[in-house]
Amino acid sequence: MMLIEEILINDEYWMIVKSTLGIEKEGGQEKYLGLPESFGRRKKDVFTLIVDRIRQRSIKYSSRFLSSAGKLTMLKSVLSAIPTYAIAKEQGGLGFREIQSFNDSLLAKISWRIFQNPSCLLSKILIGKYCKFQDFLHVPIKTSTSHGWRGILIGRDLLVHQLGRAIGDGQTTSLWNDPWLSLSTPLRPTGPPRSSDKDLLVSDILLDHSREWNREKISEILPFHLEEIQALRPSRNGASDSFIWLPTKSREYSVKSGYHLAMELKETQNLQQPQPKVNWNADIWQIKASPKMKVFLWKIVQEALPLGENLLNRGIMENPCCVHCGDLETTEHLFFHCSFAQEVWKLAPFSISIDPLLIQSFTSTLPIAKTWICLPPTGVGSGTLFPWIVWALWKTRNQLIFEERTFTPAETMIKATVEAKEWQLAQLGINVIKKIYIPNSRTRDPPNTIDCFTDGSWTEEHRIGGLGWIFTRATGERLDQGQEAERFVSSPLMAEALAIRSALNHALEIGIACIHLKSDAQVLIRAISSQEQISEIYGILFDINALASMFTSISFSFISRSENSLADSLAKDAKSRLVALISQRDPLVFVAGNV
């Protein structure tokens, strides 16, 4: 809408557009997901309202008596309601994401929609206006480009790094320019191509009659990619090629995966020295201590505490000396090397003696401190006492500076032990609620429904898949069965999918109208039932859905391996027979036929 408003249209044409498209209300001044629907080139005034909303919500909370962890929770609750976003704690953050990278990943969602639905109204308008001479994948960003379209292209540039192609009929995929060779990385054929081959499509290396790969043509054009190509399975029923997002298992774009990719790209471009290696989850966020202790440890590692050395590094000319001994106040000095800190650590109730003078780095001490076992009389249990001692040293230092109150090393250690014990006891009352899974009941099949058991067997060494299926009546009487074996099968999942496709073809050939297909491949059955796309078997899934539409009644269900032993035997037998035949000849497909 905001892009259309940049075009001058008189009232007469505007009314024609409204009546043709069935538009009853005019928008543009409203908000969608908290943001204005349209805006011009001056965006500062529009988005100032969002900043004001954050400020107004945050000042409603009284933060005077909140700890650092409490303020962090308050800030997240305020911002998440608007919403705003956060960087993962395992990456050294507090939960607030890098906003520019996250914004790019959100924009990529619109770009993904254009890739996946080029026939929708939004795609038609944008592509019709901006992609007259180049397609959406290659159109450049011009200086005169509107703000909205510029953002969409930023999202597109993020997608391109991990965009792949799932082959259906191969008619819309360039043989040389599109990343279609792999389902894990955006891999293209290596060139340069011959002048007569540079405009070929993937469909040009498929056999016309069977829609299988043309081995002779592949060996002529792409000899080094023969094995990779044969591991891909095109559709036999004319599925269109589709863009896929390689980082996710579903091959659908998600903001989370896009954000991770944006951060990875940003890190590779960052030339600054990396920070000290810290296992943030194991050493800080997952230790048995209160959130306040975890945030405190995070501040120490990130040099966010107002210690003398940190203040000097920031140009704050305060007294950088230790309040206990007068030396330069560094992290290691205050918590380990100071004479006061040494006395406190000598009183620590650990099963081993701790010499703080041997500690050279606070960061390197974090994983070691988790192994310091407290003696039973302390009552701390399996929890760690290390963060509580460090916190007590920090509080003692602050009370001496701001309140002129002094504490002895013994009082400091007692305070650390008491607070740790109190927190451990408070955790005993927390109940853990477990989720209970209740399976959905399935509607009954028609009386004349035939049960079909399918299974696939696979060998990684030979990349051979054995397929087996059995048709039975409701009484258990065996109606028919079949088995096949195929080469260039890339995984057990592909073998299971090929078995279902072959079984459905066989069922249609013998005139079965109502069928209940059962398989022990849970992932595959879930994908078929939910119409979920799996890029590895994209074409096969399309064929299965196309075949399923030809039955009067069809249902799919998951069964255990013990219930599928007969189909499993047929699949293994077909596989073994083809493996034996390989030593004598080199068939593409061995069909044992119906038994």
Automatic annotation (TrEMBL):
Matches recorded under InterPro entries: RNase_H-like_dom_plant, RNaseH-like_sf, RNaseH_domain, RNaseH_sf, RVT-Znf
GO molecular function, one term: RNA-DNA hybrid ribonuclease activity
Domain spans labelled Reverse transcriptase zinc-binding: 253-345
Residue spans crossing the bilayer: none
Domain of life: Eukaryota
Signal sequence segment: none
Domain RNase H type-1 intervals: 454-574
Protein name, UniProt field: Uncharacterized protein
